[in-house]
Design a protein that fits this description.
This protein has helices spanning 52-56, 152-196, and strands at 15-25, 28-40, 48-49, 64-76, 80-87, 90-97, 111-122, 128-134, 141-145. By secondary structure, the chain is an alpha+beta fold. A five-stranded mixed barrel has the order 4-5-6-8-7. It is rod-shaped, with a radius of gyration of 35 Å.
């Protein structure tokens, strides 16, 4: 891995020559403060679509991979932008230098597909414990499905509104029934009173 360098206008697949100081970080060999010289064009390396379990196996360390997951959170740090992703009940992060480009329009709970370099994080014994992706640009992010506008809070609010409307309707029906019953009773008494005062004459 090469650290502390800008894109230099290079493209995926370019052949380059790198000179720098060797370093070691989290069991990974790195070149820091590098000088990069482009030698020529080339072919884009193949991208392997993997699962989170395959990523955690360590087999794809420092390789270009593709993985899908649900976006949980977005963080904007001084020198990089970070996405928190969940897939298969496990979390991982994907980061991109802030100077490269900005994320596309992303919303939490979106299902996204990420293409990036898989970097394994290990414990003191060198065993893989987690991983993160290094993205090259915003083009490495593809939105597969946007979240529904119906969040839990909105659904509960709608249910409360519907329940209130149903109770109001039931109360109005009860009031109408009482009014109809009262009017019916008045009419019945009026008819009975009229009948009692009526005189029938036999012609």
């Amino acid at each position: 891995l090469v650290s502390d360098t800008d894109s230099g206008g290079w493209r995926a697949g370019d052949r380059v020559e790198v000179v720098g100081f060797s370093g070691f970080d989290n069991w990974h060999a790195r070149l820091v403060y590098p000088v990069v010289k482009k030698l020529g064009g080339g072919f884009v390396p193949p991208v392997k679509e993997i699962s989170i379990d395959e990523a955690l196996s360590g087999e794809y360390d420092a390789e270009l991979v593709k993985i899908r997951g649900k976006l949980i959170d977005i963080s904007a740090l001084p020198r990089r932008q970070v996405l928190l992703i969940n897939t298969g009940g496990k979390d991982f992060t994907a980061a991109m230098a802030s100077s490269v480009s900005k994320w596309p329009e992303l919303k939490p709970n979106s299902v996204i597909e990420l293409t990036g370099v898989c970097v394994i994080d290990v414990d003191q014994t060198g065993a893989p414990v987690s991983f993160h992706l290094i993205l090259r640009s915003a083009n490495d992010i593809r939105v597969l499905a946007s979240p529904s506008g119906w969040t839990l809070g909105r659904l509960l609010g709608l249910l409360a509104l519907l329940a209130s409307a149903a109770l109001a309707a039931l109360a109005w029906v009860a009031i109408l029934r009482r009014r109809v019953a009262a009017q019916t009773e008045i009419i019945r008494k009026s008819i009975e009173s009229t009948a009692e005062g009526m005189v029938v004459v036999d012609g």
